[in-house]
């Protein structure tokens, strides 16, 4: 496609779902800005609306539909572009929504900026923009890796290193939406990290669908990438956004424990603490393996923040299986839980499992685990009261307390009226837990 000549236009963005979606939206915003299509300001009406969708649950699908209509109401007459997982799974359906001009599937998201610019130029020149269009390909034909490294309006950079998944857990639609595992080249990813450092970035979050599978079908593994990233001057912190327990190797754990700038922080999807449910889910480990992995992390780096993903109420989760899962999670030395209620996803193998948990019971189980997660987080915060930790301060609104995160991912607030330079790292003493449990207050003497 040829470069277009679009006069300065405004774009509104809405991202739903994971950090990977955020990284991709932010990169698209950067690409469109280079074409004269800049983010919309407060009170302005956009010329184009971009919704990057999620489809991890049926609730996510509903939120996507609501978000599309809401953004259209806020920006009447704007071109409406829908991309992301929901767009890949239901492109024809979404294309028929009132006001949707273009739906972009996964294989074509690298073309999104040019396609949007072309549509805006066509409209600018008085042409009729076609409605109800979509460009999407079969999941098996999703092969392109589209790089992404951006921070948008945040302090941290989000660096995409991998996309797609080969695991096909029974409850999950992500492999259907994202395609097979594929990765960027190490030299290209390192170059992106170097550019982030040159632009003042201090922290990078490594993102992907199944990050531990980096390098599939190549001679390289995730550990090779981590070693190269650790050498990038100017970057002081890396975090791995999420990694499967069977792919979190002892080599990676040991490397992160002694590396220059990989933080003591892991997010690991457990999904269930019941071996019976793990088998139904077709997960690639059991609870004994998972416990050994967590204990090894804490042995080599006892101050590590470990967060877990857990799904409650999946098909086949009998009451006694949930009770076993609760007890297992309760026994682990973790810091946080991210709790999801199971959602029926047509086309997944979970639909063939006969035992169905009621919505009421799902809610009750979810509430129990959320309460346990809150207890775990408070206990973790309490361990470090009175200690000094390095904190990277987030830029934020001046009418709210400034906050940042320690190396081991404790959220810290400064007292009202006290500020630190945005994107700076300072040593601070950790004080009392905030009343809502969301973090701790810096103890300023």
Description of the structure:
It is a single chain. With about 450 residues, the chain is α/β, with parallel strands linked by helices. The protein folds into three domains: about 10-140, 3-Layer(aba) Sandwich (Rossmann fold), CATH 3.40.50.2300; about 140-385, tm_1862 like domain (pyruvate-formate lyase- activating enzyme); about 390-440. The chain is built from 13 helices and 20 strands. It has helices at about 20-35, 60-75, 85-90, 90-95, 110-125, 175-180, 185-200, 220-230, 250-260, 275-280, 285-300, 320-330, 360-385, and strands spanning about 10-15, 35-40, 50-55, 80-85, 100-105, 135, 150, 155-160, 160-165, 180-185, 205, 235-240, 260-270, 305-310, 335-340, 390-395, 405, 410-415, 425-435, 440. A seven-stranded mixed sheet has the order 7-8-11-12-13-14-15, sandwiched between helices. A six-stranded parallel sheet has the order 2-1-3-4-5-6, sandwiched between helices. Strands 16-17-18-20-19 form a five-stranded mixed barrel. About 45% of the residues are buried.
